[in-house]
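step=encode ok
step=design start
structure_in=
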């Protein structure tokens, strides 16, 4: 299941992030590529200890921590600090599946990458190509979003970034360990949550809504690891 969450960052915040990112020193994406990814990863990344990455990363984490749709989609247990990449001049990242486990830099902590997210930071008309292509059991989906919009998808998916043939594509990407490990269970909970929200907005019977909401929480109780 692939979920698009619009306007995680406001246009002003995107502008500030882009200015900071453009003035930061970038490194070859190979520095953080695993043995197999090295063949297909041709992009640039901010170093993991970059102060700019830390600043913008914490802004993104703050926004997500208060974002009902992100919380409902990812059901986060813990998150890896956001990372940043840049593609230009034909750069691309071929088909791959992300590592399952990441160390949280500077700590002993490890997280399992149940949920992958990409936050687009360049307006789509500023670059050619650069679609995030995600292959899942429902087929192949191409994503190229407005600056400030986020896509959330299962960490188990095969995915790639098409070559950026003109302009520059800036994005943030990060992984979340979910309280709900299985993607199909997260998908059920997402559907149920969204229906409950819509019924509540339509002023449906509150007693029945309370029962449905109880089912939602009982499923979480059944499935969650905390
Ligand atoms: Ni990836």
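sequence_out=
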């Amino acid at each position: 299941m692939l979920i698009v969450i619009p306007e995680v960052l406001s246009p002003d915040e995107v502008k500030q992030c882009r200015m900071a990112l453009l003035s930061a020193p970038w490194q070859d994406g190979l520095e953080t590529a695993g043995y197999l990814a090295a063949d297909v990863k041709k992009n640039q990344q901010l170093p993991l200890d970059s102060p700019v990455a830390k600043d913008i990363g914490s802004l993104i984490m703050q926004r997500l921590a208060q974002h009902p749709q992100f919380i409902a989609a990812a059901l986060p247990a813990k998150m890896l600090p956001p990372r940043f990449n840049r593609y230009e001049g034909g750069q691309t990242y071929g088909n791959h599946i992300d590592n399952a486990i990441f160390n949280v830099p500077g700590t002993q902590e490890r997280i399992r990458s149940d949920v992958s997210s990409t936050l687009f930071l360049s307006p789509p008309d500023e670059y050619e190509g650069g679609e995030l292509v995600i292959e899942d059991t429902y087929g192949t989906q191409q994503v190229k979003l407005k600056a400030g919009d986020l896509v959330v998808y299962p960490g188990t998916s095969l995915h790639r970034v098409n070559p950026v043939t003109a302009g520059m594509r800036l994005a943030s990407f990060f992984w979340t360990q979910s309280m709900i490990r299985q993607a199909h269970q997260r998908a059920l909970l997402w559907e149920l949550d969204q229906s409950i929200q819509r019924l509540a907005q339509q002023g449906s019977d509150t007693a029945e809504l309370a029962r449905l909401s109880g089912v939602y929480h009982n499923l979480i109780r059944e499935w969650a690891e905390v």
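step=design ok
step=annotate ok -> The domain at 3-178 is CATH 2.60.120.620 (Jelly Rolls).
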